[in-house]
Amino acid sequence: MKLEKVRSQMEQLNIDGMLITNEYNRRYLTGFTGTAGVALVAKEDACFITDFRYVEQSKKQVKHFRIVQHSGSIFEEVAAQAKKMGIKTLGFEQDHLSYSTYTSYKDVLKGIEFVPVSNIVEKLRLIKTDEEIKILKEAAEIVDAAFTHILHMIRPGVREIELANELEFFMRKKGAASSSFDTIVASGYRSALPHGVASEKPIEKGELVTFDFGAYYKGYCSDMTRTIAVGDPGDEMKEIYNIVLEAQKKGVRKIKSGMTGREADAVTRTYIEDKGYGEYFGHSTGHGIGLEIHEGPTLSARSDTVLQPGMVVTVEPGIYLPGKGGVRIEDDILITEHGNEVLTHSKKELIIL
């Protein structure tokens, strides 16, 4: 049970209460999908504090927490409930609380030590539950269907923003609440921008076009990238495409449980470096996805996190040549006991339209 895992970490940190304010951590622990409320966890009790607007919603969504309505300041209600629950040392999410909000809590928590902690809930979110995996697979199916759909609309003269909007409309029709992030459609020289959000630029013949998009579905995010060509993009662009493709396929084949994020990153990076393009691959190989589009673990040269079954990560090497163009290919994979399971299945070999 999630609450018991939080309490186990509280015991290790020698705190007897935990205040959850981050919206994603709050949703993970309580199931609440609204926009206002905090969770307060003690050793033997837990309450969810919200205002009048969300009381009925929280009664339906929130399990294993007492529902408390605050009519005055939420800070004062947290202090009152903490005192009622016998909390003497209250942990707070230091990575998510502004200094202004911190001082508002500090001013009312008389006689209670307010202790900064990190990654209490994020550690739990690293390993997905069976239900989370089911949703992430469905979110991946939506982006696969969207990619197949958009291929029929790509042609010279169409603007990047038109394609991005069509992807958004299509994914919503398939059940997504929205896209996971601002959709990237980057054509020609703009494909050298790793995060080239769709612009008014029209697509031209002979260009590569990078699509990086995801479906925000039942609270979870998918994330896929494909690069295609509109007409022959030339030998240099085809060369970097094939290098990225092989690096990405190596990553998908070799990344597995027991590797660190650094070791996983090296699988794709070493191949690209050996081909002479290391300086043009300036971001990490991948990142975790779930409630957020970027969450732990990261597959980067700075990450010592050990990959474990149940983690869901992206594998997305790229090469970007300024002023010319770039290529990125990305899949979502589920780490398993004996390797990984690929969740996104759209064709990766170069498509020339």
TrEMBL record:
Residue stretches spanning the membrane: none
Entry cofactors: Mn(2+)
Keywords per UniProt: Hydrolase, Metal-binding
PROSITE patterns found in the cross-reference section: PROLINE_PEPTIDASE
Domain Creatinase N-terminal: 3-127
Any one Gene Ontology molecular-function term assigned to this protein's record: metal ion binding
Gene3D superfamilies per record: Creatinase/methionine aminopeptidase superfamily (3.90.230.10), Creatinase/prolidase N-terminal domain (3.40.350.10)
Protein origin, superkingdom: Bacteria
Keyword Hydrolase in record: yes
Range of residues in the leader sequence: none
PANTHER family: AMINOPEPTIDASE, AMINOPEPTIDASE YPDF
Protein name: Xaa-Pro dipeptidase
